[in-house]
Design goal:
Number of strands: 11
Strand content: over 45%
Order of helices and strands: EEEEEEEEEHEE
Structural class: mainly beta
């Protein structure tokens, strides 16, 4: 059974930082693209960053490429999202997802996804 478990969310003031973790099990970690998307109340899902474990390439949305950093620890089958300079507009539930291809990730077509972790940024 494939599982993706997010952690690290919470309440932070504007300008602060959080690091999210996505612990995976049951999938071939090195053969997948793993990334993060978010969903704010009343809004659609938004893909924000992914990492292709086959070649190490990383990808970001325009809204996060300066402030967020994605990384992985292949020994732990875990992907991280370091989020800096957070703003209230970053408030959302953040989800981890796994998929075979980068294109599928950005089209929000995931093979697996976690239950999400809440990030709230106060002004």
């Amino acid at each position: 059974e494939v599982q993706l478990v997010e952690s690290g969310g919470g309440l932070v003031q504007a300008g602060g930082s959080l690091r999210l973790s996505c612990s995976t099990s049951g999938l071939t970690f090195d053969d997948h693209v793993i990334g993060w998307f978010r969903q704010a109340p009343g809004k659609e899902r938004e893909a924000i960053s992914c990492l292709d474990n086959r070649d190490g390439n990383t990808y970001y949305s325009d809204s996060t490429k300066v402030r967020f950093t994605i990384s992985s620890d292949n020994a732990k089958n875990t992907v991280y999202l370091q989020m800096d300079s957070l703003t209230p507009e970053d408030t959302a539930v953040y989800y981890c997802a796994a998929v075979w291809g980068v294109g599928a990730f950005w089209s929000l077509t995931f093979d697996y996804e976690g239950q999400g972790t809440q990030v709230t940024v106060s002004s």
